[in-house]
Design brief:
With about 180 residues, this protein is mainly alpha-helical.
Amino acid sequence: MLDFLTKLASSEQSGDLLSGLGIDWRILMLQSVAFVILVVILAKFVYPQINAMLDRRDKIINDAIKAAKESEEKAAQSEKEIQKALSQARIEAEEIVETAKKESADLTVTAEFDAKKRADSIVRAAQAEITKDIETARQTLRQETLDLVADATEKVAGLKLAKDDEKIVSEALKGRKYGS
């Protein structure tokens, strides 16, 4: 580095700065012209192609961004619609459950009412049957009492009662209630 600075200092004294740096001004001019020609060729043929390609890429990227935004908006809209549908489905499910509970309660009340009617009917039928059985038992008891009175009278009196006498005893017993 010291050599370079020394050459630079000595070249200033001599007046030729470029030669002091080791640069030939003719080659420098030729390289400058070649560089300008290269820049012109690049500007005329390469840069427009690169710019067109970059513009196409930019358009593709912008279109993709736009499509992504639209898709995102559609997804958000779809999410809202799904949430709305789920909310509606929950409401409908709650209504169905409530209706089922009401119908179940109504069926229970109806079943209880029907069961009570059947039980009352069975009780009435049983009471009627019991009343009928009691009446049959009374009839049987009357008949047996008549037979016993007739047998007892026959043994006591030694006589057999005639049919007319049975009617008299029967009428006498009708005035009296058995079993009550």
